[in-house]
Design brief:
This protein has 77 residues and is mainly beta. Helix content is 6%, strand content 39%. A two-stranded antiparallel ribbon has the order 1-4. Strands 2-3 form a two-stranded antiparallel ribbon. The longest helix is centred in the C-terminal third of the chain and has 5 residues, at 57-61. The N and C termini lie far apart (29 Å).
Length: 77
């Protein structure tokens, strides 16, 4: 479980060295705090590119604490 404070400019990031290739990045999310849509939205970026903008976990799941899984294709070269 990893989280970050909310607010403009807040970031959560990892650097993972991988050999060049094609990958699928699977991220698991849950909204532990907010109880309605549009209270927390954020973007998901991989290798500096936005792969999902304005992700709202509560809006996508309709509930607090409900899991949301997203997969993104990633090529490294």
């Amino acid at each position: 479980y990893q989280y970050n404070t909310s607010g403009a400019g807040a970031r959560l990031a990892w650097d993972i060295d991988l050999p060049d290739g094609d990958y699928v990045v699977r991220l698991h999310f849950a909204e532990p705090d907010y109880t309605s849509a549009n209270q927390r939205r954020f973007e998901v970026r991989l290798n500096g590119a936005t792969v999902e903008a304005n992700l709202d976990i509560f809006a996508a799941t309709g509930a607090r604490y409900k899991a949301l899984v997203r997969e993104y294709a990633l090529s490294t070269a």
